Every structure is written in C-alpha cells, then in structure tokens.
UniProtKB/TrEMBL annotation:
InterPro entries the record matches: Aminotrans_V_dom (IPR000192), PyrdxlP-dep_Trfase (IPR015424), PyrdxlP-dep_Trfase_major (IPR015421), PyrdxlP-dep_Trfase_small (IPR015422)
Keyword check for Transferase: yes
Superkingdom of origin organism: Bacteria
GO molecular function: alanine-glyoxylate transaminase activity; L-serine-pyruvate transaminase activity
Species classification: Bacteria, Pseudomonadati, Bacteroidota, Cytophagia, Cytophagales
Coiled coil: none
Tagged with keyword Transferase: yes
Name this polypeptide is given: Phosphoserine aminotransferase
C-alpha cells in the first residue's frame, strides 16, 4: 500500500486481503450460489467465528445488509410500531434520526459533545431508542455505563446502537442493546460494501410479533433466511468470506482493544506536548478510542503536507470540518504506519 491511510472509513484494509481474495477465487466462493451448500457452510463459519472473536452472546443472530445505512430502514420499518427516540451529538446520529423521521414518528434528544448520554428524558410514545455509540464525525463515544443505565431505566423498549466505527475495535457488551449494526470498512478492516446487524432474542421476537414482511429487506424475511444460513437476496459473498478469514486470523477483541489503547497513549503523549493541536472533545470520559478529532491551526495545509509524506489524514466533518482533522485508530493500521504518522505530526504541529 503506497499511502498510510488514516481516513476514518473507508480506511486501511487488512494486509492479507489479497491472499484471501485469491483463496476465495480458487475455492469457488466468488461464484457460489447463495442457496448452495458451499455458501451455507460459509455463513455458519462466518457467524460462529465473528461471535467467538467479538464475544457475542449465544442467542444473538447475525445478519448481513448492504450497508449500515440500510439498517436505519430495517429498524424503522420492521422493529418500530409507535416511534423511535434518537440520542445524538453529531452528524451521523442526526442523519439516522432524519432518515427515520420519514418512515416513523421520531423524538430527538441532542446533547453536547462533552456531555454523557442523557438517559433521563425518554418519551413514553416511543418503543425504540436509537443511540450512536461512536460518533465518527466528532470522535465521541457513549460509555457502556450510560448504555447500561438506559437499559435499566427502559426495560420495555428496544435499544438500537450504531457501532459503525467501534465494532471490531472496542469490546462491547452486547447485552446492553437489542440491535447493533456497523459497516465493514472501519474497525473490521474490509473494503466497503457490506453491513452487519447483531440482533438480540428480544429484537427477533419483536420483529416476528410485528410481522412486517412487505419489503425485500423486511426483517422477518432476513431472519427466516438466516435460520437456513441463507440470505434474502444475493449478498456480497466475497465480503462475507473476507470477514470470516480476517476474523479467523484475529487474536480476538480483548487483544485488539488493548492494542488500540496502547496506540492511543502514543497519540496522547504527542498531543499533550504540542501547543498547535488539541482534542475537539475536551471531556476525556466521552472521547473515542477508535477515531481522533483534533483541532489544528490549518487543517488543509496539514493534510497537504501529510499527503506529500505518504499519509492520508481524514477531513473534519459537518460543523467541525473547517477546524479539525480526523485520524482513524483502527486495528488494520500497521504499527509502522502509526510511527510514521507520529513522526510527521511531531515535525509539523
């Protein structure tokens, strides 16, 4: 790979991807019929491997979608009866709320980037609570203690969590929510083009009780096919295979989370020593470990200098675009690339 890519998604893919693609070709996976024994065996292996490596509880079902964005539609049309309430402090959580509002009644709770998740203001008129776990636009995270409080105070409601830039990089307690979803191009280290949904037994039960089955991606259809280790429509078979192979090679989420924490310490030591850079998120307690958003004097100049040095930095996003850069702290990024970036930042900040 010519450039060290720190864009927060799509970002660097795992280095053995080309080897795995060749394996998939030689094994006939790329041309496998999605009703075939070969594909069904692949589905079983992929789901069991992902469950093992990410510590997903027994009884939770894994299904695949075209993207995390498709999951917005599935949650609204197949799991929501009365309405959804959205908690967000950034652009992607706001987009989710806006999309849902076109399909179901929504209530929105906006909170600041330095604030913890406000769990005490839940409407009685909703049955699904929607939370962005790791807000990629501003590098905030919702701590699991906050999710636990939300869970304990709202036992009758489903909780859906966008974990797009944390699934595969942060050890998650999946029992704290009923729906978790992500795309594969961030912490899972794959090319873009597929989403993953993780559904609790309660979410599956609600989907069947509602029984919404009028669309090609209705959740009951997806779950019926998942029980047969199949999919509703022809899926991204190659991406499923790559997910299985990369997770099989993984040392597990405990190891990965610890590795990313060690890297974060390196970044923190550099940032604290420089006057020309600071965190966008001042409250360390709600600061992401997989995405950094840094305030710098001239983001465009810094990005151009980095590109000349063989490094891709992420743009700021939304209202923070003019004043920030974003840096991915994803598992597939090599240690030597991190060292290269730290050396560059040390020289140019």
């Amino acid at each position: 790979m010519k450039m060290a890519n720190f864009y927060p998604g799509p970002s660097r893919v795992y280095s053995h991807i080309t080897e795995y693609i060749y394996e998939a070709y030689m094994d006939g996976v790329m041309s496998a019929n999605h009703r075939s024994e070969l594909f069904m065996d692949l589905m079983v292996k992929t789901k069991s491997t992902l469950s093992e490596k990410l510590c997903i509880p027994e009884g939770y079902e894994l299904v695949f979608t075209s993207s995390a964005t498709e999951c917005w539609e599935i949650i609204a049309q197949s799991l929501t009866q009365k309405g959804s309430q959205h908690f967000y402090n950034g652009s992607f959580g706001e987009k989710w709320a806006s999309y849902s509002s076109a399909l179901v009644p929504t209530t929105n709770v906006h909170f600041g980037i330095n604030e913890v998740l406000p769990t005490g203001d839940v409407s009685e008129d909703v049955d699904v609570l929607c939370v962005t776990h790791n807000e990629t636009s501003n590098a905030t995270i919702v701590r699991q203690e906050s999710l636990q409080m939300l869970r304990e105070e709202n036992l009758g409601k489903l909780i859906a969590v966008d974990a797009t830039s944390s699934l595969g990089g942060v050890k998650l307690d999946f029992t704290l929510a009923d729906v978790w979803y992500a795309s594969v191009q961030k912490c899972l280290g794959l090319p873009a083009g597929m989403g993953v949904m993780i559904l609790s037994p309660k979410a599956q039960e609600v989907a069947y009780n509602i029984g919404e089955g009028n669309r090609y991606n209705s959740l009951v259809r997806i779950l019926d096919n998942a029980k047969k280790h199949q999919t509703v429509y022809t899926p991204n078979v190659l991406s499923i295979y790559l997910l299985m192979r990369t997770q099989k090679a993984s040392k597990g989420i405990d190891y990965i989370a610890e590795k990313l924490s060690r890297r974060l310490v390196q970044y923190e030591e550099l940032i604290s020593s420089k006057a020309g850079v600071s965190h966008l998120v001042e409250n360390e307690a709600v600061r992401s470990s997989t995405v950094l958003a840094l305030k710098v004097d001239d983001p465009e100049v810094l990005k151009s200098q980095a590109e000349e040095y063989g490094i891709i930095l992420g743009n700021g996003y939304g209202p923070w675009k003019p004043s920030t850069i974003r840096i991915a702290n994803f598992p597939a990024i090599k240690s030597r690339e991190v060292e290269k970036l730290i050396g560059f930042l040390d020289k140019h900040l």
